[in-house]
Design goal:
alpha+beta; 390 residues; elongated; 2 domains; 6-stranded antiparallel sheet; 5-stranded antiparallel sheet; Phosphatase 2c, domain 1; 32% helix
Amino acid sequence: MNNLCTDIGYRSLTKFGELLCGDHVDIVEQGDNSMVIVLADGLGSGVKANILSTLTSKIISTMMAQSMSIEECVSTIASTLPVCSVRQVAYSTFTILRIVNGEEAELIQYDNPYAILLRNGRHFDYPMTMLTIDGKQIFQSRFPIYEGDIFYLLSDGNIHAGVGRALNLGWQRDTIIDYVEACFDTEYSAKTLTTILLDECNRLYGGKPGDDTTVCTIKVRKREAMNLIIGPPANRDDCNKMMALFFNKEGKHIVCGGTTSSIAADYLKEPLIPELTFIDPDIPPTAKLKGVDLVTEGVITINKVLKNAQDYLLDNESYQHWGYKNDGASIITRLLFEEATDINFFVGKAVNPAHQNPDLPISFNIKMRLVDELAECLKQMGKRIKVSYF
């Protein structure tokens, strides 16, 4: 087994005039480095399509995660899903990507646009074998994966983008390949790559999608540890213990909070050099400390990171700000969202007198709440999280 893992990001556009999206993505983990990702596209749009795609993705991902065959999955779907009274068809279309031990990919595709694979930033034409199951043509592929591979799973709303508007025949798969190759950047997270492609689809639709449109991007990468410490320990005698555990961890180190950074400077026996310039008027300046990758203020900065995380899990609109700015909150956001796969939080439980000021909109529990909510958001992004309190 290698040290590769997957970064997964997906988003959908709902057909204009509908409340529910007819596409659905489901992810089931099979241990540390194995998982099943299913993108299902329900027949039509609206409520019926939403039910069909949700059932399809849940059934397939659960059965595949239990190592059942694709034949069993398709037969189960055929006998389980309700039949459309108009088309007399029960299926939604689907794309399945199974990652095995971080070493191999299995693609199973039925009537969705063929998944796109970029390898070293260029389109890779993977092999496909056709199977006939219950009268349906299913395409199956199995091949090794490598660090930097990027998979795009697409619903057909992507290739319909621009029909009758910007493009006569819609956005063809070859053109989408050209676009994602042009947007390739090794630093981009899967969610950012998804956002870039989906925003272009929305532009081609003129902001009024003519079909449910979903992009699920899977990026194969090595694990990257990140460590963040905020707040001094409840017992002053534990300062050295807390710092020793923090700095002995592999990966980058982020120190948040004025008192915390002073303790870190004492532990490292290095001078703490504050920055005097406000890059963002709402975010306190950072500081420099030899042996630490980033030093920031505490509560205000982490609160901004939490807001970025909440937005990231929705439509990722705030990326245009934190993706490029160099204030403390934006840098932490990039480190945690785009670089890190495994994140260790070290949280001191000492009471900060400043947080007891009734004129401030924060309370004694603010630090704990912020870290807990941020940790939960990061878990939803697929990060491995460990929180230690002192």
